[in-house]
């Protein structure tokens, strides 16, 4: 078996293992799901549910939002039929499974609800409090929040045991990952029902803890911090992106930021009180990415090809001088290490605190939600390929050279290095270092 084949086989086994995260409790039957919020995620979720043959009630607060959502769904199905991906009958059947309405009373008869309104805690709490009054006892109450505290949402109801996070990814009818967020009081039966629903939707569910950023976004933030830091130290956006592309990602971090819109990241940083000198400056100068024709790259009218922009290098150089960061030429191996190893380090912290159950789960998250090349297994599998001792050595060296304390190796990583162990046991179907085991051994 080639290295790439072995990595793929490992991932498949890790996915099977992750799918067992639902536990042994009997899942409740779900045939009808209400989706609250008919925006980007709500529309995608309605389709994902209908594609699995489930009846959907799609709810928005006003006719306008609802009609826009339903129109997008119709157009998407028509497009899929026109391209021969589904038959015209299938398009009709699926669309017919989705009924729209305004007002949460529409959720009353459903077995489960997935909330996908704006990312605002007060609003979500208000909705859950009303859903608590509306839904029948035993119904599943899920939030698609990408980062809010699931316990704070659950506390707005009198049934926190039935509240869970289902963190889907956009587009929700295509992307397979679901981080199933277990709140403090979420019951085993609720987790089992959530996993059964996710699997029925053809998704890849992974159980995660309720900590900021859950697993994927929390690791992604470390990568983002280092990407920005690499610019200040002298790398160009093209060099950083090319390093990840050559590793096997379809896209590098800066091209991705330009595609998503720099204002999205800024909003999330503001909520967390975080700053990113370069990204903040680009935002301030109106360079929001593709939609404004310029971000980390520049774009020709009607063309999404990222073109290098000397203005960005000037802006970065100015910031580096102001901050006293010396600029240099950075070799590609270092760029790659600085992007990937801090994610591994953060995952070690995640495992230590039991916020993910197994290192294999982390790889499943990254392969299915963040485009980690399957031929490379995942970040933890990749770390094992390098070896824990070498990862510790490199992280320590980078921490020393940059003075960045976040790069210091996590205790679990140090322990694996000292004991000559791996995150992932390649011989046993994706079983890997477990969060609890990591904690006990600490
Ligand atoms: P969006 O702005 O596209 O859609 C939100 C919808 O909620 C709008 O149609 C709005 O009218 C509706 N809404 C607002 N208040 C409402 C109420 N009181 N009752 C009913 N409907 C109401 O947002 P989105 O991008 O779909 O995100 C929705 C949620 O999903 C957020 O929590 C977000 O963090 C999360 N999420 C988004 C993504 C993504 O990539 N867009 C990915 C994962 C998770």
3D architecture notes:
This protein is an alpha/beta fold. It is built from 19 helices and eight strands. The protein has an eight-stranded mixed beta sheet with strand order 3-2-1-4-5-6-7-8, sandwiched between helices. Strand 5, helix 6 and strand 6 (163-168) form a beta-alpha-beta unit. It is globular. Bound molecules: nicotinamide-adenine-dinucleotide. The site of nicotinamide-adenine-dinucleotide has 23 residues, from helix 2, strand 2 and helix 5. This is 3-hydroxyacyl-CoA dehydrogenase NAD-binding domain-containing protein. Pfam families: 3HCDH, 3HCDH_N. It comes from Muricoccus vinaceus. Residues 213-299, 335-422 form the 3-hydroxyacyl-CoA dehydrogenase C-terminal domain.
Give keywords:
binds nicotinamide-adenine-dinucleotide; 442 residues; 52% helix; N-(1-d-carboxylethyl)-l-norvaline Dehydrogenase, domain 2; 8 strands; 3HC_DH_C; alpha/beta; 3 domains; Rossmann fold
Explain the layout of strands and helices.
Elements (H helix, E strand, L loop, with lengths): L2 H17 L12 E5 L3 H12 L3 E6 L2 H20 L5 H9 L1 E5 L9 E4 L5 H14 L5 E4 L6 H5 L8 E6 L8 E6 L5 H13 L3 E6 L6 H17 L4 H11 L5 H8 L1 H11 L4 H8 L25 H14 L8 H21 L6 H11 L9 H8 L1 H15 L8 H9 L15 H7 L1
Parallel strand pairs: 1-2, 1-4, 2-3, 4-5, 5-6, 7-8
Antiparallel strand pairs: 6-7
Helix pairs in contact: 1-15, 2-3, 3-4, 8-14, 9-14, 12-13, 14-17, 17-18
This protein binds nicotinamide-adenine-dinucleotide.
């Amino acid at each position: 078996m080639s290295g790439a084949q072995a990595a793929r086989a490992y991932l498949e086994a890790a996915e099977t293992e992750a799918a067992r995260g639902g536990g042994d409790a009997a899942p409740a039957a779900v045939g009808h799901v209400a989706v609250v919020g008919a925006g980007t995620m709500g529309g995608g979720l309605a389709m994902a549910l209908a594609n699995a043959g489930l009846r959907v009630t799609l709810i928005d607060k006003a006719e306008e939002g609802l009609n826009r959502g339903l129109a997008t769904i119709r157009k998407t199905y028509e497009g899929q039929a026109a391209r021969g991906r589904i038959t015209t009958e299938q398009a009709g059947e699926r669309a017919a499974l989705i009924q729209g309405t305004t007002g949460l009373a529409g959720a009353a008869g459903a077995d489960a609800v997935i909330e996908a309104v704006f990312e605002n805690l007060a609003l979500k709490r208000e909705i859950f409090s009303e859903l608590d009054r509306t839904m029948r006892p035993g119904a599943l109450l899920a939030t698609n929040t990408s980062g809010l505290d699931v316990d704070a949402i659950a506390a707005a109801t009198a049934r926190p045991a039935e509240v869970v996070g289902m963190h889907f990814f956009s587009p929700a009818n295509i992307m397979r990952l679901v981080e199933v967020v277990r709140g403090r009081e979420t019951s085993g039966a609720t987790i089992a029902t959530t996993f059964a629903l996710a699997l029925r939707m053809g998704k890849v569910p992974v159980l995660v803890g309720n900590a900021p950023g859950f697993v994927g976004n929390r690791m992604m933030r470390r990568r983002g911090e280092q990407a920005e830091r690499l610019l200040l130290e002298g790398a160009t956006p093209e060099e950083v992106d090319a390093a990840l592309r050559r590793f096997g990602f379809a896209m590098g971090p800066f091209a991705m930021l330009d595609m998503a819109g720099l204002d999205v990241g800024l909003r999330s940083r503001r909520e967390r009180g975080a700053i990113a000198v370069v990204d903040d400056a680009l935002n301030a100068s109106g360079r929001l990415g593709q939609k404004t024709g310029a971000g980390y790259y520049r774009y020709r009218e009607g063309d999404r090809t990222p073109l290098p922009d000397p203005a960005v290098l000037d802006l970065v150089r100015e910031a580096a001088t102001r901050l006293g960061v010396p600029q240099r030429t950075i070799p590609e191996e270092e760029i790659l290490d600085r992007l990937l190893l801090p994610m591994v380090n953060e995952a070690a912290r995640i495992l230590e605190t039991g916020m993910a159950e197994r290192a294999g789960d982390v790889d499943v998250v990254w392969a299915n939600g963040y485009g980690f090349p399957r031929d490379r297994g995942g970040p933890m599998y990749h770390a094992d390929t390098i070896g824990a001792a070498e990862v510790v050595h490199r992280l320590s060296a980078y921490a020393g050279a940059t003075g960045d304390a976040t790069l210091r190796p996590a205790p679990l990583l140090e322990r694996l290095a000292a004991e000559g162990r791996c995150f992932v046991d390649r011989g046993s179907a994706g079983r890997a270092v477990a969060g609890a085991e990591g904690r006990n051994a600490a």
